[in-house]
Design a protein that fits this description.
heterodimer, A: about 400 residues, Rossmann fold, Coagulation Factor XIII, Chain A, domain 1, 6-stranded mixed beta sheet, 9 helices
């Protein structure tokens, strides 16, 4: 587990310390008194599921914090404890300011009631007083774009309209910390844009947003930091790019355990990544516009699949992708053989201008259905695959773009 | 709890109002329809017991009025505990998806039954006018007090039943049986005087029987229970409510995991 490298010096909005939660799962679920009497004599056995195991983290004010993990990783349990629906076994959750106590949109919505009645019902459930709702109802209806339908019964709404109304109430509930379980896929594309814009606005206003999501795209675009849970434990908590990469790696291991378990000995792996300049000297410091040659060494044991190599170069400071190349999309056929392999990617007179860069590489194959199976990932941050580019002049910028000034 | 009752006042009222609106679908026809069920049952009971068993001529001239009052009060108890019992399950989303104080759900569900009962009183008043019976002021005050006491009793039962029902789904069936036993163990279809004297004190230990019996007596015969009996019953009901709230606090803590 790694600590975030750039913890901002801001106030803590949510502080979680040593959170533990266990579920007791009886082998025979007893749901009736009759069943209880019948089973009174028998010895009852059960499993213990450690849903959350010693979770500690802080979410800062104004932060967009995402929680990710596979099914059963404990992310929903964590969210439920944050919301106050579940009670933890031990540990503490301290929230400064109010937390939105709901996990779903449109709680309490009833099809037989009109849109307007449902706004009142839902907003009351979310903790608004009648006076507050009276003040906000126009804004809520406006935002939902349902002016024409607001006095119709909700059961006649399309699912998109339903979610629009629900989202609209939720963001007007006005709490300091917003909890959200996978809501970024609301409504049609223009409304989605509007929701995202609204989330950005809330963030600018200093609201803290905690999102539980499967969608890597929305997390990549929005989250400041991401916590990855794995089997109830904290796997990593870091910037979105770093956490997502670690998540990919986690998923990959899982896949490998599943699909390649019988051929474990035939594991294909990346041995190392080396950098050379055009004089063939191994280095990690380049001048701008100097040729960069990246040599990747492999240990290949299984060539039953067509293998591909991906290579991404990231800005070390921001984790932003500067460029990404791979042999699949660029249709380069590498003559793979069993044993040691070498592949070289050359950037002649590379256009990097100034800065420090990280190289991430991966080895994968593509199944017939388009799904990619990863064999190995080689993270620059773990293996010191960095390089630095020193500019020859005083100009700024990561890359040098071919350009021309004119009248 | 009293201060939080104030905090969650709007929530409780909104939930109860929604139940009420949904039940009657915003229409008078819906209301009449909802009233019809207890009323029809009452008419059947009235026919059976006043015509066939002829309780009317056994010292209870206003048997129909007594039966109506008693039966609607009992119906309030049956409906109130039944909706209070299923409050957590039927509003499961409000338990598992949002952190609300769970007692508000139980209170709002029973409150809805109270609202229905109060609207049903229109029929009671109608029958009293039809029979030309004007209750004494004391009788009316005692009756109104009895309704409050009955509501406290319903609330206490609901606080105990609701978490139990989430854990054990056959509790509702057991309770149904208990309620129909309670109906015949309370002086509803028969006047208390029909029973042998030594049974009276045992029967009146049940708050339901006590409340129904003395409400009828107060309204129709202007007869009241002894003051110290009333005080004991009020204290017992309040004590029961406090106990049930403490129990509910303990049992409802992890209830979201079972829904």
């Amino acid at each position: 587990m790694k600590k975030s490298t750039e913890q901002k010096n801001t106030t803590v909005a949510v502080s979680v310390r040593n959170l533990n939660k266990k579920f007791i799962i009886p082998h025979e679920k007893i749901q009736t008194l009759r069943g209880m009497f019948v089973h009174m004599m028998k010895k009852r056995t059960h499993d213990v599921l450690h849903a959350l195991d010693d979770i500690s983290f802080d979410v800062y004010q104004g932060e967009f914090f995402a929680i990710m993990g596979r099914n059963g990783s404990g992310k929903s349990t964590l969210l439920k404890i944050l919301a106050g629906v579940y009670e933890q076994d031990s540990g503490s959750v301290i929230v400064s300011g109010g937390i939105s106590p709901f996990l779903e949109l449109g709680i309490g919505f009833h099809g037989e009631l009109s849109g307007r009645d449902n706004i009142y019902l839902n907003a009351t459930v979310l903790g608004l007083s009648k006076k507050e709702i009276d003040e906000k109802i126009d804004a809520i209806i406006n935002f939902s774009e349902l002016e024409r339908f607001i006095d119709q019964k909700v059961k006649n709404y399309s699912s998109g309209m339903y979610m629009r109304l629900a989202f609209s109430v939720a963001i007007h509930a006005n709490k300091e910390v917003l909890l959200m379980d996978e809501v970024l896929a609301v409504g049609d594309a223009p409304f989605q844009e509007k929701c995202l814009a609204e989330l950005r606005r809330l963030k600018r206003m200093g609201k803290t947003i905690i999102l539980v999501s499967h969608g890597e795209q929305s997390v990549r675009d929005f989250a400041d930091r991401v916590l990855i849970l794995d089997h109830g434990r904290m796997h990593i908590i870091d910037t979105a790019a770093k956490s997502l990469f670690a998540y990919q790696k986690l998923l990959m291991q899982e896949q490998q355990d599943e699909t390649v378990s019988d051929t474990k000995k035939k594991k294909n792996s990346i041995v190392d990544v080396r950098l050379y300049n055009d004089r063939n000297i191994e280095t990690s410091v380049f001048e701008s516009r100097e040729t960069i040659r990246i040599e990747i060494n492999y240990d290949i044991k299984d060539i039953s699949q067509q293998l591909h190599v991906g290579l991404g170069i990231l800005d070390k400071k921001t984790d932003a992708w500067v460029c990404g190349n791979n042999t699949l999309y660029e249709t380069y056929q590498h003559p793979w053989k069993k044993g040691k392999n070498r592949i070289v990617l050359t950037f002649p007179e590379a256009l990097f201008h100034k800065g420090e860069f990280v190289i991430n590489t991966s080895l994968f194959s593509e199944k017939e259905n388009g799904e990619q199976v990863f064999y190995d990932m080689y993270l620059g941050s773990e293996h010191q695959a960095y390089f630095k580019v020193i500019p020859g002049d005083k100009r700024n910028g990561l890359v040098h773009m071919p350009h021309r000034w004119s009248e | 709890m009293l201060s939080s009752l104030f905090t969650y006042k709007e929530l409780i009222i909104r939930l109860a109002k929604t139940d009420f609106l949904l039940r009657y679908q915003n229409s008078w026809l819906g209301y009449i329809w909802a009233l019809l069920k207890p009323l029809l049952f009452f008419l059947v009971l009235n026919f059976v017991f006043s015509s066939i068993f002829n309780f009317k001529n056994m010292g209870t001239p206003f048997y129909t009025l007594e039966l109506l009052t008693a039966f609607l009060m009992f119906n309030f108890f049956a409906e109130g505990t039944s909706s209070g019992m299923s409050a957590l399950l039927s509003k499961g989303q409000l338990v598992t998806k949002i952190a609300l104080p769970r007692w508000t759900l139980v209170v709002s569900s029973t409150l809805h039954s109270l609202l229905v009962f109060i609207t049903n009183l229109v029929v009671v008043v109608g029958f009293f006018i039809y029979y030309g019976k004007m209750p004494s002021v004391g009788g009316i005050i005692f009756f109104l007090g009895s309704i409050i006491l009955l509501y406290i009793f319903i609330l206490a039962c609901s606080f105990i039943l609701a978490p139990l029902f989430v854990r054990f789904r056959d509790v509702s069936m057991i309770w149904e049986v208990l309620v129909s036993i309670l109906m015949y163990a309370s002086p509803i279809v028969y006047p208390l005087v029909m029973l042998p004297e030594y049974l009276h004190r045992w029967l009146l230990v049940s708050p339901l029987a006590f409340i129904i019996h003395f409400s009828k007596q107060g309204l129709i015969s202007d007869l009241f229970a002894q003051t110290h009996h009333v005080i004991i019953m009020v204290l017992a009901c309040i004590g029961f409510l406090v106990l049930s709230i403490l129990l509910f606090k303990k049992t409802s803590r992890r209830i979201a995991e079972y829904i």
